[in-house]
Design a protein that fits this description.
GO terms for molecular function: protein-N(PI)-phosphohistidine-sugar phosphotransferase activity. This protein is an alpha/beta fold. It folds into 6 domains: about 80 residues, Winged helix-like DNA-binding domain superfamily/Winged helix DNA-binding domain (Arc Repressor Mutant, subunit A), CATH 1.10.10; about 60 residues, Orthogonal Bundle (Arc Repressor Mutant, subunit A); about 130 residues, no CATH class; about 100 residues; about 100 residues, Response regulator (Rossmann fold); about 100 residues. Helices cover about 55% and strands about 5% of the residues. The protein contains 25 helices and 9 strands. The strands form 3 sheets. Strands 5, 6, 7, 8 and 9 form a 5-stranded mixed beta sheet that branches. Strands 1-2 form a two-stranded antiparallel sheet. The protein is globular and about 85 Å long.
Length: about 625
């Protein structure tokens, strides 16, 4: 039977989830490997598929895809997701993970011969892996001990060893693992345990399944709606780690017993109590503190809003891209940090399925965020790892993608310049493509002059043109579907390579749907009038009738100001009844404008109350 690596499974899942052709270059970029590596992977995938009477379809200039019915896709995907990963070929990274786990979940030295048998590789391979592992451990203040005639053992600060065990276990989990573990917790009857890839053949595996069984019984007695799956996963892993390390006579702190009635109501305490009782272990206070959180003690309090504003400002400065104009980023990031930093249970190694992709695809943004948060977040440096940074990066990426959607690439189209031809091309591009603005059409005779005059970022031409210093695409006289795809890819490339490039489109203009300023003006007027009518309902009888026409004009101009980023910015704050009245409706007004994709500030909201009775 053909075996697949973890990367090959990911590539095949991509083919199963998307019926459109994809090039090997695109797959290589997504996996952050070379095209040659992907071609070798595709050979293995083809063999795996052929064993199931299926095959990949490929065509030059288009790519690779799977021709399958929906039922066939579901069947293959189910088999692939449930494949026994313990039988997959392990590359060196995975071997190092398993090697370190075996050496940390024991108090006895293990020989290289025994390690080779456990990992099913040669002794020479193990010796080479141990040399690499030794360097990694030294960087983390741990030591690979070589005991004569006994073997190898990892030693170091207990907290560091436990963090490394946890990091390896969490890192090798997949979405499928998380789903199956959570499913086991919610089953009412006794279930078989779950085998963790990194812990195969260790004492941890049996303990982990006992922890799952005990947690399952506890969850029957509480409301699971308020639980966080990441915290549950951390509790399971940490209780199992503490159990195995204590069995091997390694403690994380003092031998003082826990005797605090407040803690005995916590789920983490109840789980620890159940598992430790099963293995006849004492309930040490420091073990509970390790299981409960990485920051059990009170941390310095920080102004989270000021922290959020500083993060946005300093990250923007580091990568030379302004995120400060996005009020939604401020709101969402503030909410995320407030919850993350105020949670009682904080863990260093939280499962984050986005971490590796974000680090690979957006290294500059990731590094900038990591540098800034380490400087700005006080007292919680232990929590700032790749997972923590990646969750913050998600908010910045949402903001960036939203801004990218509002930008367009200026293009000059070189073709035969008949009115019918240009109209047809313009219509086809407006219907099929996004984020592109045709600045001018040109003929081969005046192409260079027009290009120099318009300074486009992209030139599309039916003729080869030399001597231009911007992106160039040659297309057929009447653009084909493949031509349009090439143009769209070039647009995405330009916007991604230079975030500041691209002229910002008007806020209300969906890409490719506006053909004239008249259309945009019409929609702006209709939108303003819709908002005016909704505000009338909101204010009801409080609106002063003699100012109703003025209120209409005010709302129209207000929508115009917001659309063109020219909102009021008033100094100071009100303290009279008008301010109290506005506080009651702030959220409703802000929600109304948000529904119309308009971010209104507080000064604009305050100005509306000038038209309310008693405030003139």
């Amino acid at each position: 039977m053909q075996q697949l690596t973890k990367r090959q499974i990911q590539v095949l899942l991509q083919f199963l989830e998307n019926s459109e052709p994809v090039t090997t270059k695109e797959v290589a970029d997504q996996q952050n490997v070379s095209v040659r590596t992907i071609k070798y992977d595709l050979d293995s995938i083809r063999l795996w598929l052929q064993e199931r009477n299926q095959d990949l379809t490929s065509k030059r200039s288009q790519g690779v895809w799977l021709k399958l019915s929906d039922s066939e896709r579901i069947k293959l995907k189910s088999e692939l997701m449930d494949v026994d990963r313990l039988e997959l070929f392990a590359d060196q990274t995975l071997r190092l993970d398993r090697l370190s786990i075996h050496l940390m979940l024991t108090n006895q030295a293990i020989t290289s011969f025994e390690l080779a048998e456990r990992l099913m590789v040669s002794k020479d391979t193990i010796i080479n892996d141990l040399e690499v592992l030794e360097k990694q451990l030294t960087a983390q203040k741990m030591t690979l001990e070589r005991l004569p005639r006994k073997g190898f053992l990892i030693t170091g600060p207990e907290h560091q060893i436990r963090l490394l065990i946890e990091e390896v276990l969490q890192k090798d989990l997949t979405d499928y693992d998380i789903y199956k573990i959570m499913e086991l917790l919610l089953q009412s009857e006794k279930q078989e345990g779950y085998e963790l890839y990194s812990a195969k053949g260790t004492a941890f595996q049996e303990v982990f399944n006992q922890v799952i069984a005990d947690m399952r019984q506890l969850l029957k007695q509480i409301d699971t709606a308020e639980l966080n799956y990441a915290e549950l996963l951390n509790m399971l892993i940490r209780v199992a780690i503490a159990t195995v390390r204590l069995q091997n006579e390694y403690t994380i702190g003092r031998y003082q017993l826990l005797n605090d009635p407040k803690e005995q109501r916590e789920l983490s305490y109840l789980l620890m109590q159940q598992v430790f009782a099963h293995y006849h272990l004492p309930l040490f206070e420091d073990e509970y503190r390790y299981i409960y959180s990485d920051t059990f003690e009170n941390d310095p309090q920080q102004d989270v809003m000021a922290l959020t504003e500083n993060l946005i400002h300093k990250v923007s400065k580091k990568i030379n891209y302004s995120f400060s104009n996005d009020p939604q980023l401020l709101t969402n990031l503030y909410a995320h940090l407030s919850m993350r930093l105020s949670r009682k249970q904080k863990f260093v190694n939280e499962y984050n399925p986005f971490k590796d992709d974000i680090k690979a695809k957006y290294p500059e943004l990731f590094d900038a965020i990591e540098t800034v948060v380490r400087r700005e977040i006080h007292g919680k440096s232990l929590l700032i790892n790749d997972s923590f940074v990646a969750y913050i990066a998600l908010h910045f990426l949402v903001s960036y993608e939203k801004a990218a959607d509002l930008r367009s690439v200026r293009a000059v189209y070189v073709c035969s310049t008949g009115l019918g031809v240009t109209s047809l091309i313009k219509q086809k591009i407006s219907e099929e493509l996004s984020n592109i603005e045709i600045a001018a059409f040109a003929s081969v005779l005046n192409a260079k002059e027009i290009i120099k005059q318009k300074e486009p970022e992209l030139v599309i031409s039916i003729f080869p043109i030399e001597g231009i210093d911007c992106e160039f695409i040659k297309v057929h006289p009447l653009p084909t579907k493949q031509d349009l795809e090439k143009i769209q890819q070039a647009v995405k490339k330009i916007l991604s390579q230079s975030p500041q490039k691209g002229s910002k489109k008007l806020r209300l203009e969906p890409a490719g749907n506006r053909t004239s300023l008249e259309d945009f003006s019409k929609e702006l007027i209709l939108q303003a009038y819709t908002i005016y009518e909704k505000l009338l309902l909101l204010f009801e009888e409080q609106l002063n009738q003699e100012y109703r026409e003025a209120f209409l004009l005010h709302v129209f101009l207000m929508v115009h100001r917001i659309t063109f980023d020219q909102q009021y910015m008033m100094e100071g704050t009100k303290t009279d009844e008008a301010q109290a009245e506005s506080d009651l409706r702030n959220n409703q007004i802000e929600q109304l404008f948000t529904e119309h994709n308009l971010a209104v500030n507080q000064s604009e909201i305050n100005a509306l109350f000038a038209y309310v009775k008693g405030n003139q």
